[in-house]
Protein: Cytochrome c oxidase subunit 7C, mitochondrial
Organism: Drosophila grimshawi
Amino acid sequence: MLGRSSVIARNFSQSMVRYSGHGGVPGENLPFSLANKYRITAVFTIACVLGFGSPFLIVRHQLLKK
């Protein structure tokens, strides 16, 4: 019984992948556009700098706070 349900689930998932409209084109399912390479570079750089630097700035603020 368990073997048959796994086969049915696998067939269903394969058919959903095969007939869905998503996939095949890189960047199709991203929530932002990849058309402008300079904009995506700037956004990526800002996100990395803020993500990496914010913990250090928070610690500095807490240490300098009176």
User: Anything to note?
Assistant: The chain has a mean pLDDT of 81.
